[in-house]
Amino acid sequence: MIPFERARLDWLRQARSESIGSTTFAYLIATYGSASSAIEHLPELARRGGRAQSLRIPTAQEAEDVLRVLDAQPGVSVPETPSPGPIDGAADVLDDADLQRLESLHSLTSTRLDDLAHDAAGAPSSAVAAALVELSLAGRAERLPGGFAVRR
Prior knowledge:
The chain is mainly α. It has helices at about 5-15, 20-30, 35-50, 60-70, 95-105, 115-120, 125-135, and strands at about 110, 140-145, 150. Strands 1-3-2 form a 3-stranded antiparallel β-sheet. Helix 1 runs parallel beside helix 3. It is elongated and about 50 Å long.
């Protein structure tokens, strides 16, 4: 399989993984540099976020089946998948205690991400974003449009 085809399958696998929305998808690609690398990290991120059950990630065969159906449809094409590099500060992470404290800071109503970062003792925004991805994968938080998050 050529690298482009593999990247295309991995993008589809990541996009169709449980608890992965557009914001989380984009963050993971930017953080890990490729869908393949992001998929490798999903189980650990979900576990760190407190998820007890395994995260459902489609297999390569399932992704191939979807692409085969899409490719057979007249007028439907799956775009090429660029692979941006990691974002600055992506290595910033919060430890488990900080992750629990961050979860306790936001409520069942939406909270601005800037406020969460400020309340988390000035933690880097990239660390807060990474922690929210972990909490989101575990089903304990959800990132909302406009720079907000809410506890589930």
